[in-house]
Amino acid sequence: MTARTLVCYGSSEGQTASIAERIGDALEADGYDATLVHLKHPPADLDLEAYDGVIVGASIHMGHHQQYVTAFVRDNVEALNRLPSAFFSVSLTAAGNDTDSQETARELLAELPTETGWEPDRTLTVAGALKYRQYGLLKRFAMRGIAGRAGGDTDTSRNHEYTDWDDVESFALEFADELVALQEG
Ligand SMILES: Cc1cc2nc3c(=O)[nH]c(=O)nc-3n(C[C@H](O)[C@H](O)[C@H](O)COP(=O)(O)O)c2cc1C
């Protein structure tokens, strides 16, 4: 039996989009059906009920997830609470190895479900990336300051990626396995 999974996400600099792609690839490699949707431009006829489960992803910018993801979750909260659902939150904070950073990353993650009344069955904080080479000058130096204070990389001559791809794949496959177990009763 195959599980149809919707993977929908917000992404401002592309890292969450890459993570969603990896989730889609991992699901398909294991024989599951995955549909990817960028929530900035969702198709008008997107129907959550057409899926067996939904994974939502968003990244943190200036302390918050993308507003359009929060709006999407709020608009679809009944379906999301009825279906098996999962949420991953991408941030620089999640890259910190200390307990404080991990706790802050979980607090950042919790904001969206709390604000919208969504109760995802599974959640994951994911370390994102610093794409210095992609940022304009002002953003590059602002992010260098933020990263420096957070103990992150300050070498702006290259990009830095902190994402644990194995963790991302396990999160997706464990969720899909649960969907199948639910279907098989
Ligand atoms: C302008 C800007 C603001 C950010 N603000 C935060 C923040 O407040 N907290 C945090 O943990 N990470 C912050 N980050 C790091 C992002 O969450 C990280 O770069 C992530 O990979 C971005 O995902 P995206 O490429 O999908 O947008 C910020 C990044 C940028 C570029």
UniProtKB/TrEMBL annotation:
InterPro entries: Flavodoxin/NO_synth, Flavodoxin_dom, Flavoprotein-like_sf, Protoporphyrinogen_IX_DH. Gene3D superfamilies: 3.40.50.360. CDD domains: GAT_1 (cd03128). Residues 5-185 form the Flavodoxin-like domain. GO terms for molecular function: FMN binding; menaquinone-dependent protoporphyrinogen oxidase activity. GO terms for biological process: heme biosynthetic process. Coiled coil: none annotated. This is Protoporphyrinogen oxidase. It comes from Natrialba swarupiae.
